[in-house]
Amino acid sequence: MTRIIGGLAGGLRLHVPLRGTRPTSERVREAIFSALDARGLCDGANVLDLYAGSGALGLEAASRGAETVVLVERDRAAAKVAERNAAAVAKAGAARAVVEPVSVAQFLQRSGRQFDLVFIDPPYDLPPAEIGFVLATLAPLLSHPAVVVVEQSKRSGALDLPGDLVLERARDYGDTTLHYLATAGTTVDG
User: Which conformational region is residue 39 in: left (phi greater than 0), alpha (psi within -120 to 50 degrees), or beta?
Assistant: First the structure.
């Protein structure tokens, strides 16, 4: 079962797509939001959740005080699930997330918005070159300061970081590695 862990919608059960996604485990989400909450990075943030699936990461940020949330998911069935979950989280009093049913590349290339907090949770089989492209395309859309959390398989190796994005830290949870990236001058503790 996937649920919102904390904040206004804490305990709310989220629906998950029947196929095609790999939901972030509750243990990993707890680790992510413990680190982010310790720095107050969700409160008032403009959040982007790429490869959103059910929207669990972005909606958790909404529940914890994000000002805006954009969920990008190209799979139509998964985008509908994310829309349903976004409505339920908004009903609990959190910010209403906008679901963009397009590819990550399409969204990043046409978006002019700035984001403070970004989640990137691609399919584990996504080639490293594509993740590098996503990070390079995302970099101009980041506020200063901003934090990017990338979730990938432990076997995926190091990230190819563009511009002023730096690796603050990486943590392993079973087969999952979380990479905390930041723009210059931003730190993630925890």
Answer: alpha
Q: What's this model's pTM, rounded to 2 decimal places? A: 0.93
Instruction: Flag the least confident range among 20-29, 34-43, 136-145.
Output: 20-29
130 by DSSP, 3-state: which? helix
Question: How many Å apart are CA 82 and CA 22, to the nearest integer?
Answer: 14
> Exposure of 174 by Cβ count < 10 A (0-12 exposed, 13-18 middle, 19+ buried)?
exposed
Residues 6+ apart with CB under 8 A from 116: 41, 45, 46, 47, 142, 143, 145, 146, 147
Residues in the chain: 190
Domain ranges for the chain, please list them.
Answer: 2-182
What's the CATH superfamily of 2-182?
Vaccinia Virus protein VP39 (3.40.50.150)
Q: What is the pLDDT of residues 113-138, one digit of tens each?
A: 999 999 999 876 788 888 999 999 99
